[in-house]
Design brief:
This protein is of the alpha/beta class. Helix content is about 30%, strand content about 25%. It has a four-stranded mixed beta sheet, with helices on one face. A two-stranded antiparallel ribbon has the order 3-4.
Length: about 150
């Protein structure tokens, strides 16, 4: 699961912008491909007096924190390539909006991750491909994952 938390000031984004951001991020990951239901985007609105950057209040600042669980990028090239694609995806809602922002992505251990009590199948396996196709978690076996 890529889990995205957008810490933003109240009313920085409209309901429609939030929906568009969530869809854009989901489309980015769907091209990997990973199941779309893996992608979770939360908007955490921060009060006008609750965000300080450099000791000063800032109502035009966005902090994005992402946890990658489904698939971890390994090389510097993979990581920087993804950051470039992610920034490009968000550009209409960050740079083009004239705000300051920060993005941080962490790779988490997928063994500490379940969906509806189910350990996700290995990336690229037949079971994983089935999850992409049906877009929901279902019980799978090692034999299914390996295509036996």
């Amino acid at each position: 699961m890529p889990f995205h938390r957008f810490y933003c000031s109240v009313n920085l984004y409209s309901k429609e912008e939030k929906q568009a951001i969530a869809r854009s991020i989901t489309e980015l990951y769907a091209r990997v491909p990973i199941p779309q239901f893996y992608v979770v985007v939360n908007f955490i609105e921060v009060g006008q007096d609750d965000c300080y950057v450099g000791g000063e209040p800032n109502t035009k600042f966005l902090r994005i924190s992402v946890q990658h669980l489904a698939r971890n990028l390994q090389t510097v090239e993979e990581k920087r390539n993804f950051m470039e694609r992610y920034e490009k995806t968000l550009e209409p809602y960050t740079k083009d909006k004239g705000i300051d922002w920060e993005v941080q992505i962490s790779n988490e251990d997928p063994l500490y991750w379940n969906l509806n009590g189910i350990c996700p199948p290995p990336f690229g396996s037949e079971s994983h491909q089935m999850w992409v196709k049906i877009n929901k978690p279902v019980v799978w076996s090692e034999e299914e994952a390996q295509g036996s």
